[in-house]
Amino acid sequence: MKADLSNIEKEIVVRNMREDDIEEVVKVANLSFGIPGVAFEAKHYKSHIQIFPEGQFCVEYGGKIIGACSSIVINFEEYPEEHTIDEISGDGYIRNHNPNGVNLYGLDVVVHPDYQKLKIGRRLYEARRKLCRKLNLKSIIFGGRMPNYYKYADQLTPEEYVEQVIQKKLYDPVITFQTMNGFQFKRVLPNYLPDDKASLTNATLMEWVNEDYVPPSELDYRHSLPVRISSIQYDFKKVDSFEDFARQCEYYVRNSSKVRSDFVVFPEVLTMQLAAFSNEKFPSGQAQKVTFYTNEYIGLFSGLALKYSINIVAGSHYEEEDNNIYNVSYLFRRNGTMDKQAKLHIPPSEKSWIGVQPGKELRVFDTDCGKIAILIGYDIQFPELARQAADLGANIIFTPFAEENKQGYLRIRYCSQARAIENQVYTVISGASGNLTNVTMADARYGQSAIFSPIDFSFPNDGVVAESCQDKNSVVVGDVDLEVLRRNREIGTATPFKDRKRKERAAGSPAVT
User: Fold this and answer.
1) Who contacts 150 (Cβ-Cβ below 8 Å, separation ≥6)?
2) What contacts 340, CB < 8 A, 6 or more positions away?
3) What does the alpha-carbon distance between residue 293 and residue 443 come to, in Å, rounded to a whole number?
4) Residue ranges of the CN hydrolase domain (predicted)?
5) Which residues contact 353 (CB under 8 A, 6 or more apart)?
6) Tens digits of per-residue pLDDT, 429-487?
7) Which tens digit of pLDDT belongs to each residue from 138-173?
8) Is the Cβ–Cβ distance between 316 and 340 less than 8 Å?
9) Extended strands (E) in 210-265
């Protein structure tokens, strides 16, 4: 009789973590630590997978998750010597992950207590080593617990205790395991994990050096992550057909592509120009007419994004859904995909003239130049929206706007600059000039398109990267550096983004997810 191995043969599989594993991973993490408040929560693991999926591993045995580990890539030298787990992990969400970093930092290793004799921890360490070699990273670093230290704290300093364990005079399950797996003790990290009472909040900084690491040459090393942006100061002039409108839009896209811009952004209610050749007199009727061009609008800009290999924030367009009108901005990526953001706060003019309804959620979009958000016109005047966008990882906030006078324009400008400083992000505004006297929202436009930065030594003194002439048709082009932005958040003269997060954490206020 042939043996039935179905209940005996169980394969141990080490693989990348998936979102449908998270519930089990959280259970294993809490069992592994056995300390309330130490393990990452589901929202953290979800963020890990979204930002750095190849750095998150789990171990599956018999169809059950029995171990896991999370990692992040950083430049370790840019962090304080006495850092905490919250600082190094971006408050648990790893939004500080740096794809161009040289160190793999291990955030946790968790193993189900019932399976600790299967060398699960060793398997996870080996998965990290393979990843470190694959990514050509300099080393693996982490802060490790010292769970037996509380027994000797009245006799030994943390450093003396670790030395005793390394010399095999004392036993600590974590430190012993780590040193046996090739990790070298660097120093003690005080106050690393506040809830770890057994370690008295201390941790050991450990490092494994990748012997296969090849330092990049000066020619190959990319010191920054520049993004070139074209912001259009658009001329609202009379057009006689959709084809006329399309030619005008393509002119700006083509010229932005010529200077190799990564993004081109148009102003708010861009397609109201199409109402110029309708016979509709009433504002709501004009907006309704424009909604009929939604498919043509999408086809035009999706085609231009592919043709000119450029990401397009195509101003905004009135769109009808369920008998309601929304002011919607589309992002057309150069890889052919698209997303959209509806305006969330509706000013009195749009409410009374057109009956525009507010959108329901703020979104942050992934692009080949990092995460971005779109706050249409009035939305930039609400600080909480930009704050949420930054918390969700946006480095650039685009604001298409359409204002009829200098007062309206200055509200947009000053609020955009404030949002850049408050959240340490880049902000981009794109406005319109011109005068279509018979079209509401396109008559008597006033604006100045610009690109803004935080204000610090690494940026322009006045926080203005580039700007157009006021109320004149033009294309303003500027470069923004995401690596400089990241560094500024960590070690700038002022660090409002990090300090706000620290205050929220101390107050027990959860980050936006």
Assistant:
1) 197, 198, 199, 200
2) 328, 329, 330, 331
3) 20
4) 227-482
5) 283, 284, 440, 441
6) 999 988 877 787 767 788 999 999 999 999 999 999 999 988 788 999 999 999 899 88
7) 999 999 999 999 999 999 999 999 999 999 999 999
8) no
9) 226-236, 263-265
Render 367-430 in DSSP notation, one character per residue. Answer: EBTEEEEE--GGGGG-HHHHHHHHHTT-SEEEEE--BSSHHHHHHHHHHHHHHHHHHT-EEEEE
Return the bridge partners of 487, or none.
none
Residues ≥6 apart with Cβ < 8 Å to 513: 43, 47, 93, 392
Reference 369, options 265, 251, 491; nearest CA is 265
Residue 186 phi/psi, 5-degree rounding, is -105, -50
Nearest to 70 by CA among 32, 91, 44: 44
CB 310 within 8 A of CB 347: no
Please state the rounded mean pLDDT for residues 19-32: 96
Strand partners, 111: 67
Q: Look-up: residue for tokens 């969700």?
A: 392
Q: Is 438 exposed, middle or buried (0-12, 13-18, 19+ CB in 10 A)?
A: middle
Strands 226-236 and 432-434: parallel
Question: 129: closest CA among 139, 119, 143?
Answer: 139
Identity at 84, one-letter amino acid code: T
Percent of the chain with pLDDT over 90: 75
Distance, CA of 411 to CA of 418 (rounded, Å): 11
Encoded tokens for 188: 């003690």
Q: Which residue has the tokens 């880049």?
A: 426
The partner residues of 341 in beta bridges, in order of sequence, read 329
Q: Which two tokens stand for residue 394?
A: 């946006």
Three-point CA angle 290, 294, 299, nearest 5°: 135
Alpha carbons 93 and 415: distance in angstroms, whole number: 28
What letter represents residue 169's amino acid? K
At 321, the amino acid letter reads E
Please say whether the beta carbons of 402 and 268 come within 8 A.
Answer: yes
pTM: 0.64
Distance CA(100)–CA(225), nearest Å, equals 9
Q: How many residues does the chain have?
A: 513
Question: Which tens digit of pLDDT belongs to each residue from 374-396?
Answer: 999 999 999 999 999 999 999 99
Per DSSP, 453 falls in state -
What does the block give as tokens for 91?
């408050």
Report d(CA 470, CA 400) in Å as an integer. 16
Tell me which of 277 and 326 has the higher pLDDT.
326
